[in-house]
Amino acid sequence: MEFFLEISLNSIGFLVGIIIGTISYIGFKNTASPTLFRLSIAFFAIGIGFGILAVGFILDDMIFETGDINTGISMLGITSQVVGYWFIAFSHTIKTFFPKSRYFRSIGALPLFLVSFGYVETILRAVSFILLVYGAIETMISYAQGRKKTTLFVAIGLGLLGFGEFIGWYSFVFPETILYVVSIVIKISGLISVGIPVSKIPLRKISFDENL
Amino acid sequence: MAGNRTQIKIVGEILDTTMQEIDEQEGATVTHIIKNANISHGRLSRILSNLVSQGLLEQVNTNRSCRYKISPSGREFLSAYKTFREFSDDFGLNI
């Protein structure tokens, strides 16, 4: 039952992440905006991270039958999510700290490699938590300036993703509890909240223009 | 904190200016675009020639002045720009 829940919830996370990533990528193709490019990488990475975890649980359920997801697969999925969260935080960093510097924008990928070479799952979760809290705070500040409801949903969503990571980290301390499932439910709620702006995009009016 | 406008934001404002003018007359003058988009003449000239070469703007030469009007591709781009500007704003980011 727990495996079924984990597979279902991670699959939803995969779908939501890929949908937001695709919308962002369509935006990037139409406008050539670096911000939308970073957002597309972020949500593709988050979606793929959830997808990897779902595949890990399916493989264990059907083939390995050890009763727990393979550590390597789990690490890969979480790392992918950390990369996604990093790109969201990095986009806010550019807006806040480096609005004029093309140099800092160009070397933006460098800290990615410094961050993602951690091999311990708990460290990855801690990094995710920090990045998400930072992203949530920055988005909340943007909401305070613009008062857009959808921005508030994104800020709450990032906050829920961070809280889900925190609960997920706690599930290592208490492995036999439902904390892991709770953390996924919170994270999926966060992803759906983050995905609310997507519902406003008029998909049929958007087309790729190869000349732009 | 208000940072510098990005290139795409400036392009969006230029296209928006030419779009606003389309009902009243055949395109916008350079002076009008400078005023509305708040951009220097030197920088505007480079951007305008770029937009014309990409087919987003059409140059209309009249007896007295050179005007710019938005093309169908430009309208599509402006529509997509506005949509995704909102999308970026929702994430607390600048497009």
- Helix amount of chain A, in percent? over 70%
Alpha carbon gap, first and last residue of chain B: 15 Å
Beta-strand portion of chain B reads 5-15%
What are the secondary-structure elements of chain A, in order, as H or E?
Answer: HHHHHHHH
What is the count of helical runs of chain A? 8
Based on DSSP secondary structure assignment, what is the total number of beta strands of chain A? 0
Largest sheet of chain A: none
Tally the helices of chain B: what do you get? Answer: 4
Tally of separate domains of chain A:
1
Low-confidence stretches of chain A: 106-118, 208-212
The largest β sheet of chain B comes out as: 3 strands, antiparallel
Mean pLDDT across the residues of chain B is 84
Radius of gyration of chain B: 14 Å
Distance between the termini of chain A: 49 Å
The secondary-structure class of chain B comes to alpha+beta
Label the structural class of chain A. Answer: mainly alpha
Strand order of the largest sheet of chain B: 1-3-2
Give a quick set of tags describing it:
heterodimer, A: 212 residues, mainly alpha, 79% helix, disordered C terminus, B: 95 residues, alpha+beta, Arc Repressor Mutant, subunit A, three-stranded antiparallel beta sheet, 4 helices, 58% helix, 13% strand, globular
How is this structure best described in words?
- The complex is a heterodimer of chains A (212) and B (95).
- Chain A is an all-alpha fold.
- Chain A has one domain.
- Chain A has helices at residues 2-31, 34-64, 71-97, 102-106, 110-116, 121-146, 149-173, 179-194.
- Chain B has 95 residues and is an alpha+beta fold.
- Chain B has one domain (7-90): Arc Repressor Mutant, subunit A, CATH 1.10.10.
- Chain B has a three-stranded antiparallel beta sheet.
- In chain B, helix 1 crosses helix 4.
- Chain B is globular.
